[in-house]
Amino acid sequence: MECTESRDGNVLVAAINGRIDGTSAPAMETAVLDLVQDTDGAVICDMAGTPYISSAGLRSTLIIAKKLAVKGVKFMVCNLGDQPETVFRESGFHKIIKSAETLEAALAKVRDA
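Predicted structure:
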């Protein structure tokens, strides 16, 4: 699992590449939280490069979302592939964490919200 950062104005985009499972979820959580430590704009996790997410990955994503919510920072995920999207929907996470089909759509949503 690898996490890279880019910015679009005051929006931080954390691109997650690789599987997010019981082994890699803690590293993903730490990497994203380190990136967003001083962020007061929105945060988008771009999961275009994430072919698989387990319940441990969902837990880490929820922890990130909750920590950002406490700071008043908007959080979204985008570019969910087939398996991650299925897991988000079947677990009900799509009701808790906002998502968008593309990065461009996510950027538009966080700017409009």
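Summary: The mean pLDDT is 95.
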